[in-house]
Amino acid sequence: MLSKKRKLGKKMNDLQAGDLFTTSATVEDRDLLMYLGLTDDANPLYIQHDYASQTPFKRPIVPTVMVFGMVSSIISMHLPGPGSHIVSQEISYPKPVYHYAEVRFRAEVTSINKDKHLVTIQVTGYDEEGDEVVRGTLEVKPPYEPNSMNAHSLENFY
């Protein structure tokens, strides 16, 4: 990733209602362990099979903040992309995500407010069974158009 050239994401004038991005992500052990290590989160529901088997979940689940991290990555890297900033979110998690699950995400721009430099993005995520595991609305500030004399230098950053 360090040697890969990146461009700023879609700026306000490049976005329109209906813009869509889809992707999928799988929760791997290393991702879960890194998250738990970084946050010092030792919730047994996330890592202990014996405990989780005695709950209604029946097996360990993925922390919802990790699922939101996948959503945040879509905004930061794809729609609108690098330079974007989430300013608010309203998200629900109707079904848990289990270890090793593949989640299919869909993000769509639903409205644009050029005066406030704000776009609304609707996000949904589904597991392998087609059940909804995340749904929400995010308010996002897309990348700002650089106004320096050397603005094009920011178009390819590392």
Notes on the protein architecture:
The termini are close together. The protein is elongated and about 55 Å long. With about 160 residues, the chain is of the alpha+beta class. A five-stranded antiparallel β-sheet has the order 1-3-4-5-2, covered by helices on one side. The chain has helices spanning about 30-40, 45, 50, 65-75, and strands at about 20-25, 85-90, 100-115, 120-125, 130-140. About 20% of the residues lie in helices and about 30% in strands. The chain has four helices and five strands, in the order βααααββββ. The longest helix has 14 residues, at about 65-75.
Strand order of the largest sheet: 1-3-4-5-2
- Please compute the radius of gyration using only Cα atoms: 18 Å
> Structural class from helices and strands?
alpha+beta
Helix content: 10-25%
Chain-averaged pLDDT: 90
Q: Work out the number of β strands.
A: 5
Number of helices: 4
Largest β-sheet summary: 5 strands, antiparallel
List SSEs in N-to-C order: EHHHHEEEE
Distance between the termini: 8 Å
Low-pLDDT ranges: none
Share of β-strand residues: 25-35%
**3D shape:** elongated
